[in-house]
Write a structure and sequence with these properties.
Blueprint (H helix, E strand, L loop, with lengths): L1 H16 L5 H15 L7 E2 L11 H9 L4 E5 L8 E5 L5 E3 L5 E3 L9 E5 L2 E2 L5 E2 L5 H12 L3 E5 L20 E3 L4 E2 L1
Parallel strand pairs: 1-2, 1-6, 6-9, 9-10
Antiparallel strand pairs: 2-3, 4-5, 7-8, 10-11
Length: 184
C-alpha cells in the first residue's frame, strides 16, 4: 500500500517539477543557503548533477571546487547496493553512468561526510521521497555504520507534500534546503 502511494506521488511531483517557474532565481537562493551552511574545505562533500528537473546545484559545486573543496559524485556500481563516491576535479571528464547520472571517469573513491541529496518530494518532518531505487537509503545506512555524516535534502518549495509515506528503512534528512527556508 505504501509503495503504491509513493509511486503515485513520484509521478505527480516529477511531472509538476518540470513546470516550476523562475528556476534560476530559486536555484541561486538555494546556492546562497548552501554557501552559508558549508563553509569549510576540510570535509568531503557529495554533490550531484541534476537529472529529471531536479534542483541544479552545479554553481554551488563550482563554488566549492573554487575553494579547493574535495568533491565526490555518486556512482552506481551494482543494483541493490549502496552508492560509491568518486572524487571529481573541475577539469576532469564526466560520463553518463546508470540512469544517466554523470560520474567521473576515474577510480578515486572516497567517503563523504556531507551528502547533498536530490529529492522528488519531502515533508516538514524531513522525510524524503526519492525515485524508489533505495540507493540513498542503503548508502546512508552503510556510511552511518562507519562514521557520522550529514544529510542535506535539496528541493524546491513546490516539492513539499503534507506527509511522505515511509517504511522502516527510509532515512530522514538532517536538514532540507529549499529556496525559501532551511528545515532543521
Amino acid at each position: 500500500m505504501v509503495e503504491i502511494q509513493k509511486t503515485k506521488i513520484r509521478k505527480n511531483i516529477i511531472k509538476s517539477r518540470q513546470l516550476i517557474k523562475n528556476r534560476n532565481l530559486k536555484e541561486n537562493k538555494i546556492k546562497e543557503k548552501l554557501v552559508q551552511l558549508i563553509n569549510t574545505n576540510n570535509i568531503i562533500v557529495s554533490t550531484y548533477f541534476s537529472i529529471n528537473h531536479e534542483v541544479n546545484i552545479n554553481n554551488f559545486t563550482k563554488y566549492l571546487l573554487g575553494k579547493n573543496q574535495r568533491i565526490v559524485l555518486p556512482f552506481i556500481d551494482k543494483s541493490n547496493s549502496h552508492l560509491l563516491f568518486k572524487e571529481w576535479k573541475i577539469k576532469e571528464n564526466l560520463f553518463p553512468g546508470k540512469y544517466g547520472i554523470m560520474t567521473p571517469a576515474n577510480n578515486s573513491f572516497l567517503s563523504p561526510k556531507i551528502l547533498l541529496i536530490p529529492m522528488v518530494a519531502f515533508d516538514v518532518k524531513k522525510n524524503r521521497l526519492g525515485y524508489g531505487g533505495g540507493y540513498y537509503d542503503r548508502t546512508i545506512s552503510y556510511l552511518e555504520k562507519k562514521s557520522k555524516i550529514l544529510k542535506f535534502g535539496i528541493a524546491f518549495d513546490e516539492q513539499e507534500i503534507k506527509k511522505v509515506p515511509t517504511l522502516n528503512f527510509d532515512k530522514k534528512m538532517d536538514l532540507i534546503v529549499t529556496q525559501s527556508r532551511i528545515i532543521i
